[in-house]
Amino acid sequence: MALLVPLIQMLFSVYSFIIIARAFLSMAGMDHYHPVLRFIYDITEPLLAPIRRYAVVGMWDLSPIVALILLTVVEQIVIVLIAGAR
Q1: Cα angle vertex 38, ends 64, 19, to 5°?
Q2: How many other CB atoms sit within 10 Å of the CB of residue 77?
Q3: Is residue 12 a contact partner of residue 71, using CB atoms and an 8 Å limit?
Q4: CB 41 within 8 A of CB 52
Q5: pLDDT digits (tens, 9 = 90+) for 10-55
Q6: What's the DSSP call for residue 2?
Q7: Alpha helices of 1-86 — where are they, by DSSP H?
Q8: b or e along 32-50 (b: 16 or more beta carbons within 10 Å of the residue's beta carbon)?
Q9: Domain segments of the chain: what residues?
Q10: Is 4 exposed, middle or buried (0-12, 13-18, 19+ CB in 10 A)?
């Protein structure tokens, strides 16, 4: 149980980093068919696609920012629930 909280924090941190990497790589104009970029898109699109419907302002896609905020909130909720279950 003591290792569960750090593990959850690590998983949320890795996923957040991948979302940030996707945002920077899309701004850099990398080839969307590159295997690494394709992998990043495949694991982040299920979270970003629903958010994108509501988080596009003009030509700005704010879904990565909204997703990072939501991930932080969900991470804190999960940690509190696990810590309270001890």
Answers
A1: 20
A2: 10
A3: yes
A4: no
A5: 999 999 999 999 999 988 887 888 899 999 999 999 999 999 999 9
A6: T
A7: 4-28, 35-52, 63-84
A8: eeeeebeebeeebeebbee
A9: 4-84
A10: middle
